[in-house]
Design brief:
Helix 5 packs across helix 6. Helix 9 links the parallel strand 9 and strand 10. With about 375 residues, the protein is α/β, with parallel strands linked by helices. Helices cover about 35% and strands about 10% of the residues.
């Protein structure tokens, strides 16, 4: 496999998403822009936690849920509460070393153990605030400029191959994510992804509960272990299966020959009253750690959250809603800026917990509260 090095040219990293002037704004500005564009959909609150009083939560009675959660959004809320049950233990008397944050995954060097979660559906979920392809481009280029990988999904309101085609336009830098569609259609999308030389291919297995893929032409299905193996065998690219929330499914992902297991409940957007990611991640990590890389999301907002996700057993943490917000507000420059913000917090978190390397981030740096 070809080793890829993250990063793009200086002009990409400094100019805004529309090719305008030099960077003069900050995340607060881009978040304010997003708030204006997401009126009635998302309040871009200081803490994105699934609070029942937030604009995005509450029963939608069949209407699009926007950036909220399914049903009463209890799983969205559970993600936040589960992660916040863990506190970082401060340790400062130690010989100083600058934390080493880089790592390699899928033959690609990452600046830090953080990636962009797969996102799509601007028309149905994000107030139609920008063209879908422009949204994908911002997520992919912002991640690349920082030195990591962005993921983009597919949505029933756009051509099914728009996400993977956009990754192809970005010279393969990115990971297309597909809903669990009919097997023959998925195999064709996998073949296209391989032709476009993408970094890896991901399938949202939990997308079987999608509320928007419901037409006869665009339906989603659960997948058997044999079907997972068929997908892995149809491509030479690394395959990631997402939506894993128990050890039994994690073992099946390993046995399928997949290249990574992605622990996620889709941000609480498909199953209500479910478990939080941080509740199940330690058990999954204990079961399969060292066999294939583990990815995990679940209200990851800061570098402190990234360190906690690492300590709970994941190799890479993924960020979703905050990147969608800033991408709507400022394109790829804002996405890169958010990753930079996360990296700064991660460096501080590692320094203050005695972590010189990512391997030092384990359960020993965490304290779990009885309740929150």
């Amino acid at each position: 496999m070809t080793i890829r090095s993250a990063g793009v040219s200086g002009d990409i990293a400094q100019k805004n998403g529309k090719g305008g002037g030099m960077l003069e704004t900050d995340l607060t500005y881009y978040r304010r822009q997003a708030r204006e564009k997401l009126t009635r959909i998302c309040g871009v609150y200081p803490v994105c936690d699934g609070d029942p009083d937030h604009l995005c939560t509450g029963q939608k009675y069949g209407a699009p849920i926007g950036l909220g959660g399914a049903g009463q959004a209890k799983t969205f809320e559970a993600n936040y509460r589960a992660l916040q049950q863990y506190r970082l233990k401060m340790r400062v008397i130690k010989v100083h070393h600058e934390p080493e944050m880089s790592l390699s995954i899928f033959g690609t060097e990452l600046t830090a153990p953080v990636m962009g979660a797969p996102m799509s559906g601007v028309k149905t979920n994000l107030n139609d605030a920008m063209p879908e392809e422009e949204f994908y481009w911002g997520l992919l280029k912002g991640a690349q400029a920082f030195g990591t990988i962005g993921m983009v999904g597919n949505t029933p309101s756009s051509p099914e191959d728009l996400g993977v085609a956009t990754v192809g336009k970005n010279q393969g830098w990115g990971i297309p994510s597909f809903k669990p569609q009919a097997q023959d259609r998925l195999i064709k999308l996998f073949q296209l992804a391989e032709k476009l030389d993408v970094i890896a291919i991901e399938v949202d297995l939990e997308g079987a509960g999608s509320t928007s893929w419901t037409t006869p032409e665009k339906k989603v299905y659960r997948k058997s272990q044999n079907e997972l193996q068929e997908l892995v065998d149809c491509t030479r690219k690394p395959v990631i299966f997402k939506g894993i929330m128990n050890t039994e499914d994690a073992v099946k992902v390993v046995d399928s020959g997949a290249s990574a297991c992605y622990v996620s409940n889709h941000g609480g957007r498909v199953l209500d009253c479910g478990q939080g990611v941080a509740e199940v991640l330690p058990d999954i990590a204990e079961e399969i750690s060292g066999k294939i890389p583990i990815l995990a999301d679940g209200t990851v907002r800061t570098g402190f959250d990234v360190l906690k996700i690492r300590a709970l057993g994941a190799d890479v943490a993924l960020i979703g809603r905050p990147l969608a917000q800033v991408c709507i507000g400022g394109g790829y420059v804002a996405v890169q800026m958010y990753f930079d913000y996360v990296k700064d917090d991660l460096r501080r978190a590692m320094l203050l917990t005695g972590c010189d390397t990512l391997k030092d981030a384990n359960m020993k740096i965490l304290d779990k509260l009885a309740h929150i």
